UniProtKB/TrEMBL annotation:
InterPro entries, per database record: ATPase_AAA_core, P-loop_NTPase
Coiled coil start-end: none
Molecular function per GO: ATP binding; ATP hydrolysis activity
Protein name, UniProt field: ATPase family associated with various cellular activities (AAA)
Domain annotation ATPase AAA-type core: ranges: 321-454
Residue intervals passing through the bilayer: none
Amino acid sequence: MSLTSDQMELREEDIRKHYTAATALLEGFDHAPRIAKPVAESTAPERSPGVGARRRFRSTTPGLVTRRTVQADGVHLIDRIEAADDGDALTSPLQATVQHGLRRAVAISLAMGEVYSDQTALGDLKRANLAGDLPPARKAEFSELLTAEALISAHVLGNALAYLMSSHLTETTVDVGEVEELLTDNGQIALHGALWELDQVLATKAPDDAHLVAAVSAYAEALMEKAAQRAQSAQHLAGFAGSAWHVEADDLTLRGFEPASKAKSTTLTMTFKKPTEVVGNHIAKYQALRLAKMLMAYDFDRRLNPFAELGGFIFTFMGDGKPGTGKTTLIQMMAGLLNDYCQVAGYPFRYQNLSTDNIDSYQGKSGQNAKAFINTIIDPSVIGFGTIDDIDQLAGKRGDRQSSAGQLEITAVLMESFAGANTVVRGNCTFGMFSNYPENVDDALRQRAGARFLVDGPQSREDYIDILSLLMGKNHDIPLGDHDLMAAQEIKRAVAASFEGHNRPHEAGLLDVFDRVSNQIGTLDTIAKLGTYLKGIQQADERFTGRAIKNITDAVKVRAMDFELPDEWMENPELFLFKDYDTKKAMISELRVPITVDMVLQEINRYADSEFRYADKSDEVAIDAMVRDFGRQEEAKKRYLEGKG
């Protein structure tokens, strides 16, 4: 793999020279835990009879008398790993793989710590401190740099170890809890604390090889997360956080405090649908087709999609419609298109659905499951498509007493991930939320859907003839009759008619606003008049906020990209997909069309129609629920009085 402009090489010789030190750490070292409490015995061999144990150490150094001191225990990770299967005297291939991966990760961590020391003042300050002539004025800086080195060492250890173990993971999972022994004295002490705690995890969580790999990987992930959290408030880390280092032998790229991961595809077992097998749903089908091709424009070297920079990329969308109108078929179509495109281009593709299985009774676990789902899809080294089917059952509505704690956790994670302060839209993935009852979705979460796909199924007489013929198959002799099969599904003609249908609103409440504003100020053909219309909508529905305006303008930008990337660009990657970022951006820019008043008005009506539709349903559901509650109260009061009388 060639290095990109923002990457530097971490040389193999600089890593391998630390193998001896890394091996020594795995063979054994002493560590007295400061924060975490030991839960397992040392793997060190027993003392001979008659040899007394050392007395508990008590520091006499001024200022350290009150520091917690515990007997230092021997940490022997090689012995601990080999003890994962007591029934076999020989080291298993998987145990050897873990040992080699751990040594490699420690060596990479030591090499990165050395690079950081050389690139900052830390190297000079270490030499001055060793010689005893460290200036007093620089002691605070020296301490801050040592803390930074410790956090880098811990994070790189976890990052490299999780990456190296990822291809050996199975379905077995291990919960290692929170990392506690993260010490920030310096890089060496940080490694001692992390390896001691890993030894404790393996002693209690790794009874066999499958649990061994799962435990090592889970601890590495937890160590990464804890180090990244601590790094947010530490000094002198901007240089490391903003740089990228590539390890050629492992194809590992360390990008600051971002987790690295192997660009692996998920194995899809779903039944794919071709666009010709989707009847009706013209706008939704059209947008899904275009979005699939948009995702393929992602540039893996720049880690950015030209559509995300130019505008018009759909990061989140909401698909709603009545049961049986084709939401699942739409998912199968889009996933199938992306899977086929990625196979042609050789790109890794991941699809995952967040389902009710992810709701857990343990506090915090549902949120962790949702975050793991998000992280799997947003991985910048893959093309990702994530779906949340029946989101009204998964994500709780805040203030709704029927929402479980797990559902509310999922709502919080999705809201933060889709439009939070730290959300970065690179253009490599998209998330689709689908529901038969979108009015039951939390308002704030629903508004984080940048686009609306109305999944209304077959509508016209021609649609119903087409779907009947499609589902009947060919095992019959019934004549088709006077009908041009699938002509109504011709996408451009159907979409044009669908968009024109939104020149006027569909919902009664919005139609009243539209007519009233149009009668007052005339045809809505300027920005000022369109803004007046938007204000009228807000007066009718206070939930129509600034976020709604952003979603509308994003949809307008999508319409400005109202073109499909040519099919031959997907079939022959050399024509477009394998071009450099700037070339792809220029090719896309040439295809853009001007924004018109009709586009803006249609998108306002489409979005506002959906909000009025959701609000009306939500209000009706709430009113019905209150009526039932009042009825139950009256009946209960009646029975109570009858019982007393």
